[in-house]
């Protein structure tokens, strides 16, 4: 898919909006890291999002994936500024959705920094919805080349997969802080349920995305670090550990199986033609 029309003022406005939103998101991440004097995310909101706060919280190293995601987002923000990208149909389709995700990302960080955990739950659900919409739009179109595949499709896939598990952790933390006792079922039971839902989300993404690898990779990454977190620290849980490992395996195996099946089906159709 290539540019088929002349760039307009609206196209330029979209390009600038995406670029500015990327800068806002990166500044927000800098604040959220604590490097600018703010409180690191894991220590903000009374530590509600720390590795030992709930059975769904991943261990600290899991968050290093943000470095890759932000790098990809910045690369996309710069790449989409190129004149040739201004009127590209695919960029017109997803540009503002990507910008919305970047602004929501910054809003999430600020809500946590100001100890507004309930608000952060609302924001991250909106962020997940925006990323899901963006992913669906991308799946229904084809990238123009390798660069677009990496900086747009690849980055947004990683973004979606990671935010999927982050949403589960955030909502669990919000419910815990609010005093929700899980109907007396216990933390282990709820951990298994939530992780099973996370696996189901990964399977649905794999099906709709026809086996795209990056969402599965980041979701499995998050689930793996949930398993690690439940074997160390103060909140050890064997059921949660096993559930997280199984969930990660299900997501990865399902995605690969669907990808292989889709490839064979596509080749078969090509042969028939």
Give structural notes.
The protein contains 8 helices and no strands. The protein has one domain. The protein is globular and about 60 Å long. It is an all-alpha fold and 273 residues long. 71% of the residues lie in helices and 0% in strands. Belongs to the TspO/BZRP family. It is found in: Membrane. It comes from Agreia bicolorata. Pfam families: TspO_MBR.
Looking at the structure, what is the overall shape?
A: globular
Largest sheet: none
Helix-and-strand structural type? mainly alpha
Helix content: over 70%
Compute the number of strand runs. 0
Order of helices and strands: HHHHHHHH
Residue-averaged pLDDT: 91
Main attributes of the structure:
single chain; 8 helices; globular; 273 residues; mainly alpha
Short structural description:
The protein has 273 residues and is mainly α.
What is the strand and helix layout of this fold?
Layout: H1 9-32, H2 65-79, H3 89-113, H4 117-139, H5 146-178, H6 187-208, H7 213-229, H8 238-272
């Amino acid at each position: 898919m290539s540019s088929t029309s002349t760039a307009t003022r609206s196209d330029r406005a979209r390009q600038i909006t995406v670029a500015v939103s990327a800068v806002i998101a990166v500044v927000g991440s800098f604040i959220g890291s604590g490097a600018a004097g703010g409180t690191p995310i894991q220590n903000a909101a009374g530590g509600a999002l720390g590795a030992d706060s709930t059975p769904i919280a991943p261990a600290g190293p899991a968050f290093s994936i943000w470095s890759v995601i932000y790098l990809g987002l910045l690369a996309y923000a710069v790449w989409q500024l190129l004149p040739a990208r201004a009127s590209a149909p695919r960029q017109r389709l997803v540009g503002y959705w990507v910008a919305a995700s970047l602004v929501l990302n910054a809003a999430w960080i600020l809500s946590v920094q100001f100890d507004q955990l309930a608000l952060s739950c609302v924001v991250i659900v909106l962020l997940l919805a925006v990323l899901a919409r963006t992913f669906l739009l991308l799946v229904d179109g084809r990238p123009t080349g390798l660069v677009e595949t990496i900086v747009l499709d690849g980055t947004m896939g990683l973004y979606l997969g990671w935010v999927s598990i982050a949403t589960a952790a955030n909502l669990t933390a919000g419910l815990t802080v609010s005093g929700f006792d899980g109907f007396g079922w216990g933390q282990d039971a709820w951990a298994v349920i939530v992780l099973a839902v996370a696996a189901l989300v990964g399977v649905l993404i794999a099906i709709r995305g026809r086996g795209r690898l990056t969402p599965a990779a980041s979701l499995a990454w998050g689930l793996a670090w949930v398993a690690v977190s439940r074997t160390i620290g103060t909140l050890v849980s064997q059921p949660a550990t096993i559930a997280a490992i199984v969930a990660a395996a299900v997501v990865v195996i399902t995605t690969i199986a669907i990808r292989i099946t889709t490839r064979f089906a596509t080749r078969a159709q090509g042969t028939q033609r």
